[in-house]
Design goal:
globular; mainly beta
């Protein structure tokens, strides 16, 4: 019901973030030997953005630091609307 920030640090593992499809996502990442499934996110000015970033009612800003891992963002979930 409001904008949020998330800080994630991963070493040796996989993180899948499940975010409602109507929430705008911005992802900043510092990575080393890490795979990133950016399906549905577009790189712009050094960050990855969801296609609805500019029009979304709610926003999630994600800051990730990872080594030897994998990051994925799953936006197929339900709605964040109350």
């Amino acid at each position: 019901t409001r904008d949020l920030n998330a800080d994630i640090q991963v070493t040796l593992g996989k993180v899948t973030l499940r975010v409602p499809h109507d929430v705008g996502v911005q992802l900043d990442m510092q990575r080393f030997l890490t795979t990133f499934d950016n399906d549905g996110l577009v790189k712009r000015d050094g960050s990855y953005y969801s296609d609805n970033w500019d029009s979304a009612r709610y926003h999630l800003r994600i800051h990730v630091q990872t080594t030897f891992g994998a990051i994925a963002v799953d936006r197929s979930g339900g709605s964040a609307q109350p």
